[in-house]
């Protein structure tokens, strides 16, 4: 058995496995198009006698965390032929992927799970969820007179991306989008866009949507202020001769829109979405900012069998600017840690998906209650979100 990166001439093997595993068939034209975009250096496979048995892809991304940009490795396309399942192939590939991501400075990794329990075994944990709303026309917000203007089907990526950036960087775990990602993974999925411009001509919000029978489906509703939100909703409401309802999907978990409706009893759903994990605790903590104006010390004990370089007791020194230095203690230096948990727990905690006190109450985080309170004060309040898929 050999674990290695795929080669340029192995596209057909890779594509055949993907089609079988994910239940789709590409047309000859689609195959050629994907072959042109094939990046074998991003894919790792397990081979026996030079035949591909299982594979995964590590896509290099950048993500927002605390308003800063971190490198992230996105795991995608995990596939195994059915006769090879339960042989540990995926386990070996995930361990290899973590080493590769660490070496590349990707301190975080995200993936969309086919099974949450499966990936929890390897250190990934839920970090993001989203809301869906279905709002009948009779419960739309009241139409308003807005001072600016709506422009439909805007094609200028610089306008959309600037609005997206201003919105997305408020959250932890959103993608930094480049032009290729906008074109291939965002805009091609939607019929229409609309942008709200202020009276001064400044873009203040956008929506990406499509019309399906009697329904308007909106997958991205981005706004920088209440004026833009109200204007874009008025734009939706002006479709009332054609639609019976609006379906909003991929809404942030902290959204309070139903409360603003005259009748908030609309269909609402919260969907667990992507999983994430810290790949390299030392590198991650060096990029993290704690909320404090004084120096402090903390020790945490982490269990991470899949990425053993994270396992052990960490001494974390935080200065008066909230910047941290983390040191993995040696056997001679080991002491009783203030707080103990697995990598899943600390990933959910530092991403801002769960608070220290919540995790302590669930018995996911163990230790001294006063240290939990101390950590509660050190971890900035934050909301996780992801609007994309890979």
How would the blueprint of this fold be written?
Blueprint: E1 2-5, H1 11-22, H2 28-37, E2 43-48, E3 51-65, E4 68-80, H3 89-103, E5 108-111, H4 116-120, E6 125-126, E7 129-136, E8 149-152, H5 157-168, H6 179-186, E9 192-197, E10 203-212, E11 215-223, H7 226-237, E12 245-251, H8 257-260, E13 267-272, E14 275-278, H9 281-287, E15 296-303, E16 312-318, E17 324-328, E18 339-342, H10 343-351, H11 356-361, E19 366-367, H12 369-378
Parallel strand pairs: 4-5, 11-12, 15-18
Antiparallel strand pairs: 1-2, 2-3, 3-4, 5-14, 6-14, 7-12, 7-13, 8-9, 9-10, 10-11, 15-16, 16-17, 18-19
Characterize the structure shown.
The chain is of the alpha+beta class and 390 residues long. The strands form 3 sheets. A 7-stranded mixed beta sheet has the order 1-2-3-4-5-14-6. The protein is built from 12 helices and 19 strands. The mean pLDDT is 96.
State the gist of this model.
With 390 residues, the protein is α+β, with helices and mostly antiparallel strands. 28% of the residues lie in helices and 32% in strands.
Count every beta strand, where a strand is a DSSP E run of 2 or more residues. 19
The oligomeric state of the chains shown is: single chain
User: Level of helix content?
Assistant: 25-40%
Radius of gyration: 23 Å
The gross shape turns out to be globular
Strand order of the largest sheet: 1-2-3-4-5-14-6
- Indicate the mean pLDDT: 96
Biggest sheet descriptor: 7 strands, mixed
Q: Which structural class best describes the helix and strand composition?
A: alpha+beta
Terminal Cα separation, in Å?
A: 28 Å
User: What is the helix tally?
Assistant: 12
In the predicted model, the low-confidence regions spanning at least 5 consecutive residues are none
How much of the sequence is in beta strands? 25-35%
